[in-house]
Known about the structure:
Blueprint (H helix, E strand, L loop, with lengths): L3 H12 L6 E3 L5 E4 L3 E6 L2 E5 L8 H12 L4 E4 L3 H5 L3 E6 L3 E4 L2 E2 L2 E2 L10 H13 L10
Parallel strand pairs: 4-5
Antiparallel strand pairs: 1-2, 3-4, 3-6, 6-7, 8-9
Amino acid sequence: NNLLNNILAKIQANHAGADDAVMLDDRGFLAETNATNLFLIRDGVLCTPFGHACLPGITRAYTLALASELGISVREGDYSLTELYTADEAFTTGTMGGLAHVIEVDGRRIGPADRQGPGPVTIQLQSAYAQHIPFVSLPFQS
């Protein structure tokens, strides 16, 4: 898998002052970010791009299974940037960062303007994930 596009997108995101870049598939639908998998929540349903459009990450798969265990409806599909902009919540998943909520995309705040921090579905998944996958802090040695 050639990751050159992801590297170039990350460089452009950094120049724009963003943490990551949202990547689209060859049809213009959401795929992933340059380094993580992408999820959005609409009306309590956990939505994520089809696995063929992204790297099918381990944390992504675990999050989908965890959501099912918690009774959260899950839907894989084709999603547009507009659907991300207007989502109730959004988060990314990755081995290094677990589940990280998304505050804004392209200068557009995700979810209610008055909400501070992650939304309720994201919090529920983050809490369950943390119970199953404890983070271990190891001392850095040079």
